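Study both lines:
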Amino acid sequence: MSRLLWLLWLLLALPGRADCLSEGPLPGVNLAGAEFKATALPGRINVDFVYPSNETLDYFRGKGMRLLRLPVTWERLQPETGGALSPLHLGELQRLARYSALHDLCLLVDLHNFGKRQGLPLDQAPQAADALSDLWLRLAGALAEQQDHVALGLMNEPALIGRSQWVSLAGEVLTRLREAKVANLVVVSGGNWSGAHAWFSGSAAQPSNADLLAGWRDPLGRSVIELHQYADSDYSGTHNDCIDPQKMRTILRAAGEWGSQHGQRLLLGEFGVPASRGCLAVLDVMLAELTRAPWMGWAYWAGGPWWGSYPFSVQPSGDGQDKPQMAVLADYLAPAAGSQ
């Protein structure tokens, strides 16, 4: 799909149809902060962690971001396994869900726990499926009024458990959600670090994400497979170099062809680059590739008020100045009505 057709698709999708399963694409941003200083438990709001303000939400919505991926920490959201949700954190999520419903956005609640709880990998935890299902059932119930505008990100980068174990656990959680009549969009991360560059890598003991998720099925047809992809030489997102644009195109094209072959919708849930000329060229190639089916959306890493000098940040400066990456992103966004 050309950039012009992508933008036309966005514009046609906006009026009254911009929920989590709208017919148009879902471009967006990670609004990081609630998962910061995860070892400080329970932590102090606006000291150890922060939720995005309405001002931040208004900025990204005005730019045309329609997907708000919000990383959260399980131990803060649910202090005791199987227990009640924290009133503080639930209140913040309810505020963000109401904002999303009011403005026809999709709030993706991303459980940013890497396949563990309280330091214990889930494949070593007793009744892990019970525990993870309980969390999502409670949260889906608490946000039921905004169901169409809230997506459930079962687990970010479950690298501390094996890929096979993760896909089995995710399948059990999905089954329990659907049996309980939870109809939210469910976002299922690939195993390990979810990297598109390693999507086809596996072994007899641990099959690849491509093999394990090819047959993923949701009885409601309301799931999407999440991949991540950073552009530095080791794909970790921790360096300021970027690979050749054509190499990046090949990586994302292969993942997309896999999704089309197996009837899977895909979301690129994390990707980001520094503001060098070469890296911005790679960003443009990535965004162009993400206009092609079966990619249904993307979330740039990252926005949020506490990034400071972080080189990937697209949080505007204190005087409201856009970051250089936003100029590239803007070519693939349809600004909200009334925005400049």
